[in-house]
Design goal:
The complex is a heterotrimer of chains A (about 45), B (about 375) and C (about 525). Chain A is mainly alpha-helical and about 45 residues long. Chain A has two helices and no strands. Chain A is rod-shaped and about 40 Å long. Chain B folds into three domains: about 120 residues; about 140 residues, Cupredoxins -  blue copper proteins (Immunoglobulin-like, Sandwich); about 110 residues, Cytochrome Bc1 Complex, Chain D, domain 2, CATH 1.10.760. Chain B is α+β, with helices and mostly antiparallel strands and about 375 residues long. About 5% of the residues of chain B have low confidence. In chain B, about 45% of the residues lie in helices and about 15% in strands. Chain C is mainly alpha-helical and about 525 residues long. In chain C, helix 2 packs parallel to helix 4 and helix 3 runs parallel beside helix 14. Classes of the chains: A mainly alpha (about 45), B alpha+beta (about 375), C mainly alpha (about 525). Chain B: It is a multi-pass membrane protein. Chain B: GO terms for molecular function: copper ion binding; cytochrome-c oxidase activity; heme binding; oxidoreductase activity. Chain B: InterPro entries: CcO_II, CcO_II-like_C, Copper_CuA, Cupredoxin, Cyt_c-like_dom, Cyt_c-like_dom_sf, Cyt_c_oxidase_su2, Cyt_c_oxidase_su2_TM_dom. Chain B: Its cofactor is Cu cation.
């Protein structure tokens, strides 16, 4: 049976949550990908 | 369930649905897109009508299907649900059929949209080029081929006037039958110079230049306004274009240049101005350029725009140089713009004089154009 | 399926703690769901009050009630409150309540994280409220947040201290929804009862699965964008300032990279609710379940790559503009497929018209209309005429009020018997439906016309040619606002009593929707599915 305090399940849950957290972190980085381009002034016509 | 209620229900749906798309297809003047007055906006208008008609047909079909279902597949009428409907041939192939139909509609729209887009983005040689500069909260027009500059401010009217928020003191004048190119930019925040009759919108971005064009076919006065939220005065910066025949346009240009030359000569002459002259001129300049923020009574808006009435700088003779510096160079980190490049020496001298003498301010000096020239 | 279905709280581990501790320390998905829903209800009235002010100000030409800055501050916060404070928490509340019950899980996968993601919300709401008052209580508070919810620089850089509070509120809201999304995806992937395969899950669960993935992917981008804005405002960077080598348009790209998927974040849960409501009251299985699931996946994927259609007028290259236009028009394919599948679900069914079904039918009709105006707006040259007019306002209110809010109303009426154990008053429910639907159309339909005639959005004052449309709109708006008092009354009445709801309150529930929620009594016990049910 599955219960919330089942150790194996808890580990599995944590693993999925961490992977999703990393995806969120990558998404945050995405927004900063423009950074070098912007700071180098490469976008000014 | 109650049959009466269901009848009532479908009747309401029919009327509601009919109202929904009949009013959409209503081609009456004020219900549709602004009637075009240029070749380009005419093309866009036709595109708009195409999508509207396609959309109306789709809505009619969807509404028809729903009404049919509501009438025929009711529990109250003893309808037996067909539990295998989704397993029949239609259920197996609907996921192909529906997208194919939708895709073909999409491609029809996209292909004609794409060709109109090419016209919008064409960069053919223009006869007249106008730089449109948005700033909080007025429009400045510079004719790139002629040395003409127009500053266009809201004309204050009562909220009952037909032209309330639709009229300016000094409209842009353009010739009909010529290709006019607009270079759009801004001096502070985003603006959007939009006049639906003659020009598709592009936004005015500070530090960037956008391009759009028109070829006006009908003489007349066309009114639009700022379409990109630019802060407090966003609702109060109309854009007006007066389209005239090419000959009238040439005459207007000559007259305008003469007028500008006269004003410039007046400003640079070493004349010493009397207080009454400076105050009158100053009030005019103030109303045109400063009033939007600092208000008619000089009180500003508390917490947003500082008051000039009773301000330290405007009441202290020692601070005259600071006062002139702020007007000429602006104040960093605030909405206060540098007026040096926008106004001539006489205008700045007059407005500073006005600010130091109006609303009970006591500094009382007269500032002359040569003082400004020295401060630049 | 035999499950523990007694009301007895002493039966398993323990019942709910008493008093405030039950709520503040709660890790129970049902209690947290309830808190989400009440929070959303409160924010509905908060954001609604702002809308009432906006409609009152626009009732006739002239600036009557407050300053232009206050007006635009209300426009900004109406959007932020409704999007982040109302629709998303309400949908998250339903997810909390229903997803574990539908897939046969005892609770969410990460119950303590669940508690955190809810309790961040009131904090964010307080920050948002402070952003409204801060410009007035701080000396030199600066301009109120008058940018609209897009917070576009350079205007947002000019704003006063209110903008900083708004930025922090968005950070808090973002963390909250990312955590909630992680929790939901983990629950769906790991906590399904034996036999509940992915392709057996009710459509609502699938809808939330895609919603949560979207949120995880795009919410951080918004957080990054507003962080850069904060840096530009206070630490001398110039990400968005052309004078310093930056680009004001960069913010728009970042914002809409978040903002467009956000639209689907708001819509998908309601599509999921529709996927349960329509089969229930048509008494036959959902038509094209697989197509709907894949359709939602395609919609979510397409939604992430068409963001620049919000900014056609910024002057992109011809190639980019064409790409974004065609991509946007293609969105009509999955959306059309979904709406058609709902109509085909009604086809040859046996329909009754209880309140959730009425909302369901109205959504199909009005959301199709929003789709049609959406295609009109997707066409670039025409959009250059519609851009930032009331036509856009009318379009997205047609998309979001039927598409998201009415879907939530349908969900509330559909599940109220399950949540409270009482049937709601059907007659009042139907009055509420007709009242909202008619007044909603009265409010927003005229805005198409004023928009086509050229009335810009986010203006405090307009010229007199738009007066009639705005008056009709305002009257409709007041009626629409007023109808929600009836909504509140129905909810309170249902919580306090009413006819006893059976475990399956709807005759057609569970036909074609293999969720397990109907196997539990109404209301379900505090701890459900402590023994995992097995699906054959």
């Amino acid at each position: 049976m599955k219960a919330p305090d089942d150790d194996k399940l808890r580990k599995a849950n944590l693993r999925v949550a961490i992977i999703l957290g990393i995806i969120a972190g990558l998404a945050l980085l995405y927004s900063f990908i423009y950074l070098p381009k912007v700071l180098s002034g490469g976008v000014v016509p | 369930m109650l049959p009466r209620r269901d009848k009532c229900l479908s009747a309401l749906f029919i009327t509601g649905g009919a109202w929904l798309f009949s009013s959409m297809a209503h081609a009456a003047y004020e219900y549709n897109l602004t009637p075009p007055a240029s070749t380009l906006t005419q093309e866009i208008f036709d595109l708009h009508m195409l999508t509207t008609i396609v959309g109306t047909i789709i809505m009619a079909l969807v509404t028809g299907m729903i009404i049919y279902a509501l009438i025929n597949f009711r529990h109250a009428k003893g309808a037996i649900p067909d539990q295998e409907f989704h397993n029949g041939w239609f259920g197996r192939w609907a996921w192909v059929l529906v997208p194919v139909i939708v895709l073909s509609i999409d491609l029809t729209i996209a292909s004609s949209a794409s060709s109109t887009l090419n016209s919008v983005e064409s960069h053919d040689k223009a006869d007249v080029t106008v730089k449109v500069i948005g700033s909080q909260w007025k429009w400045t027009y510079e004719y790139m081929d002629d040395d003409i500059k127009i500053v266009s401010n809201l004309k204050k009217l009562e909220p009952t006037d037909p032209l309330y928020l639709r009229d300016v003191d000094d409209p842009l004048v353009l010739p009909t039958g010529k290709r006019v190119r607009f270079l759009l930019t801004s001096s502070d925040v985003l603006h959007n110079w939009g006049i639906a009759e003659i020009v598709p919108k592009k936004i005015n971005i500070p530090g960037y230049i956008n391009e759009t064009w028109t070829h006006i076919t009908k003489e007349g006065t066309y009114r639009g306004q700022c379409y990109e939220n630019c802060g407090t005065g966003h609702a109060f910066m109309p854009a007006v274009v007066r389209a005239v025949s090419p000959t009238e346009y040439e005459q207007w240009k000559v007259a305008r240049k003469a007028q500008q030359a006269q004003a410039a000569a007046e400003a640079s002459a070493d004349k010493v101005w009397a207080k009454a002259e400076l105050m009158a001129k100053g009030e005019e300049v103030y109303t045109k350029n400063c009033l939007a923020c600092h208000q008619a009574n000089g009180q500003g808006l508390p917490g947003v725009f500082p008051a000039l009435a009773g301000s330290k700088i405007a009441n202290n003779t020692a601070a005259l140089a600071d006062h002139i510096a702020i007007v000429v160079k602006g104040k960093a980190g605030t909405a206060m713009a540098a007026w040096g490049p926008q106004l001539n020496d006489l205008d700045i001298a007059a407005v500073v004089t006005y600010e130091r003498n109006a609303w009970g301010n006591t500094a009382g000096e007269l500032v002359q154009p040569k003082d400004i020239k020295a401060a630049r | 399926m035999s499950v523990a279905t007694t009301h007895d709280h002493h039966h398993d581990h323990h019942g709910p703690p008493r008093g405030w501790q039950r709520w503040v320390y709660s890790t129970n998905h049902k209690d947290i769901g309830t808190m989400y829903l009440f929070f959303a209800l409160f924010m509905l009235f908060f954001g609604g009050a702002m809308a009432m002010y906006i409609r009152a100000e626009l009732f006739m030409p002239g600036v009557q009630l407050a300053s232009p800055d206050f007006y635009n501050n209300m426009v900004t916060d109406h959007a932020l409150v409704m999007v982040f404070g109302m629709v998303m928490p309400a949908a998250a509340g339903m997810a909390n309540w229903m997803i574990p019950m539908m897939i046969g899980a005892p609770d969410m996968a990460l119950p303590r994280l669940n508690n955190l993601s809810f309790w961040l919300l009131p904090a964010a709401a307080i920050l948002l409220m402070l952003s409204i008052v801060a410009p007035y209580i701080f000396p030199d508070g600066g301009t109120p947040v008058n940018t609209g919810w897009t917070l576009l620089p350079p205007l947002s850089v000019q704003n006063g201290i209110g903008m900083d509070f708004t930025i922090f509120a968005i950070h808090t809201l973002g963390v909250s929804s990312i955590l909630a999304s992680i929790n939901i995806v983990t629950t769906i992937l790991n906590m399904r009862a034996p036999g509940m395969t992915m392709m057996k899950m009710p459509l609502f669960v699938w809808a939330w699965f895609f919603t949560a993935l979207l949120l995880i992917a795009v919410m951080p981008v918004l957080a990054g964008a507003v962080t850069m804005l904060l840096f530009d405002r206070h630490f001398g960077t110039s990400f968005f300032d052309a004078a310093g080598g930056g680009d004001p348009i960069l913010f728009q790209h970042l914002f809409w990279f978040f903002g467009h998927p956000e639209v689907y974040v708001l819509l998908l849960p309601s599509i999921g609710v529709l996927g349960l409501v329509i089969p229930t009251f048509a008494r036959k299985p959902l038509f094209g379940y697989k197509a709907l699931v894949y359709g939602m996946g395609v919609l979510a994927a397409l939604g992430m790559v068409v963001w620049a259609h919000h900014q056609y007028t910024i002057g992109m290259s011809l190639v980019a503009t064409n790409y974004f236009m065609i991509g946007t028009i293609l969105i009509s394919i999955p959306v059309g497929l979904m709406l058609m599948n709902f109509i085909f679900t009604m086809w040859r069914g046996s329909m009754t018209f209880e309140t959730p079904m009425l909302f369901g039918i109205a959504i199909i009709l009005m959301f199709s209309f929003a789709g049609v105006t959406g295609v009109m707006l997707a066409v670039v040259p025409a959009d250059m005429q519609y851009h930032d007019t009331m036509f856009v306002v009318a379009h997205f209110h047609y998309a979001l009020i039927p598409g998201a809010v009415f879907g939530l109303y349908a969900g509330v009426f559909y599940w109220l018997p399950k949540w409270t154990g009482h049937m709601y008053n059907e007659r009042l429910g139907q009055i509420f439906f007709w009242w909202t639907t008619i007044s909603f159309n009265l409010t927003f339909f005229p805005q198409h016309f004023s928009g086509l005639a050229g009335m810009p959005r986010r203006i405090v004052d307009y010229s007199i040619q738009y007066t009639e449309f705005n008056m009709i709109s305002s009257i409709g708006g007041f009626l629409f606002g007023l109808s929600h008092l009836l909504f509140l009354f129905i909810i309170i009445q249902t919580i306090r009593g009413g006819a006893k709801a059976p475990a399956k309150p709807w005759e057609g529930s569970q036909i074609g929707t293999p969720g397990l929620e109907w196997t539990l009594p109404s209301p379900p016990p505090f701890h459900s599915f402590t023994e995992a049910p097995v699906i054959k």
